[in-house]
Amino acid sequence: MGRGEILANLGFYVVAIDAYLHGKRMSELEKKRSNVEKYEDIVEVAIHTAEDAKRLFHKYFKHIDTVQKDAYYAYGVSMGSLTGFYLASIETLLKGLVGLVCTPSMVDYYQDKAALYHFNQGFFYEKKLAYYEMLDPLRHFERLRNKSIFMGVGIKDEIVKPVFAEALHKVLPETILKHYDTGHISTKEMLDDSFKFIEEVAHANNPR
C-alpha cells in the first residue's frame, strides 16, 4: 500500500498532483533535456508546484463538503519536501508538514547541487540564487513558526544531505527531526513515525 492510500485510510482527503514539468505535465522539450539540465531547474519546479497546490486548495478543494476548510497538511519526499516547506512558508492554512529525506533549503541546496553537477555559473545562476534567497524557507525560517513539522533524514543520504534539515531544526527546535539508518530512501520506521505524527497533528486541528 502506498503512502497516499495509507493517508486516505487514516481519514485524509489526499490530493497528489504531478510536480511541475513531471509526469503528465512534462513537455516534449523537457523530455529531451539531460538530468543535469533538469536539476538546474529543481527549485523552480518546487516553487511552481507549491503555488499550484495552494491555488488548487482555495479554488477547488476547500469547497468540498467533506474537506476541512481551515486547515490542510503537506507530505513530501525528497524534492516534494521542498515543495512542502515552501508551501508552508506561503500558506497560513497549512498547519502541518512531513518532509522525508528532505530539504527546507533552496539556496544552500542549490549551491550544493551546482558544485556537484557543475552548473553554468554566470549571470543567470546568480539571478536564480538572488531569487531563491527571497523565498528560501530555511533563510526565512520565521515563516515556518507555528507550523507542526516532522523531518525524517537518512544518515547515509548523499543526495539530500541531512545538514539542511539539521539547520532548520537548529533555528526552530520545536520541529521534530529524526535520523534513520538509511540513504535517500524512506524506511518502514520513518514512514510509521511520519504517519503517526501527521495523524496527531490533524486531530489536534480538528478534534471532532
Task: Describe the protein's architecture and organization.
It is a single chain. By secondary structure, this protein is of the alpha/beta class. It has one domain: Alpha/Beta hydrolase fold, catalytic domain (Rossmann fold). It is built from nine helices and four strands; from the N terminus they run ααααβαβααβαβα. Strands 1-2-3-4 form a four-stranded parallel β-sheet, sandwiched between helices. The protein is globular. One of its GO terms (molecular function) is hydrolase activity.
User: According to CATH, what is the topology?
Assistant: Rossmann fold
In total, how many beta strands? 4
Task: Tell me the CATH superfamily.
Answer: Alpha/Beta hydrolase fold, catalytic domain
Largest sheet: 4 strands, parallel
**Number of domain modules:** 1
Whole-angstrom Rg: 17 Å
Distinct helical segment count: 9
State the low-pLDDT regions, or none. none
CATH class: Alpha Beta
CATH architecture title: 3-Layer(aba) Sandwich
- First-residue to last-residue Cα separation: 27 Å
Report mean pLDDT, rounded to a whole number.
94
The helix content, as a percent range, equals 40-55%
Overall 3D shape: globular
Quaternary form: single chain
Protein structure class: alpha/beta
Protein name: Alpha/beta hydrolase
Keywords: Hydrolase
GO molecular function: hydrolase activity
